[in-house]
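Final report, results section. Input specification for complex C-07:
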Amino acid sequence: GQQLNQSPQSMFIQEGEDVSMNCTSSSIFNTWLWYKQDPGEGPVLLIALYKAGELTSNGRLTAQFGITRKDSFLNISASIPSDVGIYFCAGPPPSNTGKLIFGQGTTLQVKP
Amino acid sequence: DGGITQSPKYLFRKEGQNVTLSCEQNLNHDAMYWYRQDPGQGLRLIYYSQIVNDFQKGDIAEGYSVSREKKESFPLTVTSAQKNPTAFYLCASSIRATGTEAFFGQGTRLTVV
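Structure output:
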């Protein structure tokens, strides 16, 4: 099936640093969603993107819908310890918009 | 409060037994989804439903079954045919059937011994 590829797979950074991660697909997507999952919990929606080129912020988080529609980026500025978790990109593949597929996630660890 | 509820949080079963995981939402969402998550892995789609009395197989449907008799409920049965059922199961719902944000429950951790 279609896949979303996230990179990097994991990151270990110092508190206060900025973080950047991305998600790519071999197919065009019309919607990109970014989620964060804390250990043992369900993912929580951070940002939703619906237009190519769109740049949306949620506090210290900023996400962009790539111009090619085949990628998306998430940036976290001035990281803090509670940013620790797994970040997932997701979207409905254009071949079947009733589905919602996820990338394999980027695990973020923040050292105080 | 509106939300999506999965129960129980932890579930233990003996090998060879069927087990049903509950998922209820009071958000009046049309679409519901079931995902499986293994340690260190992403979310893999098991089944999804866009409307009452209809559902489709996801990428890993073998060994699972679902029903959607009511808009607010989408239970998942893990059957004895599922070869490796121990996992974290997540249910989600979205307001429309296509292309919108999904909201998740807290998950059920199933352990089969």
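The CA atoms of residues 16 and 29 of chain B lie 34 Å apart. The interface with chain A takes residues 6, 31, 33, 35, 40-45, 48, 50, 56, 58-59, 88, 90, 92, 94, 97-107, 109 of chain B (CB under 8 Å). This concludes the modelling results for the funded period.
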